[in-house]
Every structure is written in structure tokens, then in C-alpha cells.
Amino acid sequence: MAKVELKQPVVNEIKELLTDAQSAVLVSYRGITVEQDTAMRKELREADVEYKVYKNTMIRFAIQGTEFEALADDLTGPTAIAVSKTDATAPARILAKHAKNIEVLEMKSGVVEGTFYDKDGIQVIASIPSRDELLAKFLGSIQSPITNFARVIKQIAEKDGEGAAAE
């Protein structure tokens, strides 16, 4: 069997992984311990993020002609790819969190919603809260003035009720 026939299923697997993905982040994992890797993978799985290690040439073939093609320049050395189809910032956010504790873990670059970000750019993306957190903050800011208004109206009504009872 030719080498191409053996490698094609892996390339197709990577293409399938990247299909409809909102984001993909490349990370250098050289020197990470098994315990650290297991903890990081667990958190990534819980956030519905696929984290895989492939040969750089396989990733390079899979990303040709896609929005992820800009990642090709950073495919050097041991590289893992974290892909999310649901939360665009989750891979960068979780990897950055673990990179603070694991000195050897380094984010190389990423593509988030079709835009390429280098090492520094992906760090900025990592600081963006999740969609759920942003919605909660937004709803809280909308709800706050209404809640305060309702509280003032209730106090006025209670004060007027006391005044009417005294008469």
C-alpha cells in the first residue's frame, strides 16, 4: 500500500475536525507532563473542545484551501491543535489558563471565526470571556436599572401606604 493511501484517512480526519469549526489554536506542548496534559485535556473536553496531536505535514495538507491555511507557517516542532465548533474563544482561553501554570506550554497562533491571530493576538482572544459570561453580564446590566426602578416604586408605594394609614 502506498504512503499516500495510509495518510489520506488522517488528512480527512483533520479536515472533518475543522469543518464548521469556529476556532482552531496551535500549541507547542513539548515538555508537558502527563498529569498536566490529562488535566488540560479534561477541561478542554468539558468545554466541547477537540484537542489532538497530528503530524505537521498532515495538518498542512488538511488546511490547504481553507480559512485555516494561515496556520501553516506555525507548523514547526511538536504541535497540537485545539478546535471548537461551539465557543470561539474556548480553546484559547483554556490553553492560556494552563499556559500560566505550565511554562513549556506555548500557544503559537490561531484562527478565530475566520481571522488569523499570531501568538500575541491569540493571547488577547484568550482574555475574552465566554459567550455565556458575556450574555450574563449584558443581562445583568440591562436588568439592574429596571430592578432599581421597581425598588424605588415599591418604597414610594409603601411610604404612601403608611401616610394613608396614619390619617
Overview in brief:
With 167 residues, this protein is α+β, with helices and mostly antiparallel strands. Helices cover 56% and strands 16% of the residues. It has helices at residues 3-18, 34-46, 56-63, 90-101, 119-126, 131-166, and strands at 23-28, 49-53, 79-84, 106-112, 115-117.
Characterise the protein shown here:
The protein has 167 residues and is α+β, with helices and mostly antiparallel strands. The chain has six helices and five strands, in the order αβαβαβαββαα. A five-stranded antiparallel sheet has the order 2-3-1-4-5. Helix 1 (3-18) packs across helix 3, helix 2 (34-46) runs antiparallel to helix 4 and helix 4 crosses helix 5. 25% of the residues are buried.
Write the layout of secondary structure elements.
Blueprint: H1 3-18, E1 23-28, H2 34-46, E2 49-53, H3 56-63, E3 79-84, H4 90-101, E4 106-112, E5 115-117, H5 119-126, H6 131-166
Helix pairs in contact: 1-3, 2-4, 4-5
Order of helices and strands: HEHEHEHEEHH
* Count of distinct strands: 5
For the sheet with most strands, the description reads:
5 strands, antiparallel
Shape annotation: elongated
Radius of gyration: 24 Å
Helix content: 55-70%
Low-pLDDT ranges? none
pLDDT averaged over residues: 85
List the strand order in the largest sheet. Answer: 2-3-1-4-5
- Note the beta-strand portion: 15-25%
- State the secondary-structure class: alpha+beta
Number of helices: 6
Distance between the ends: 100 Å
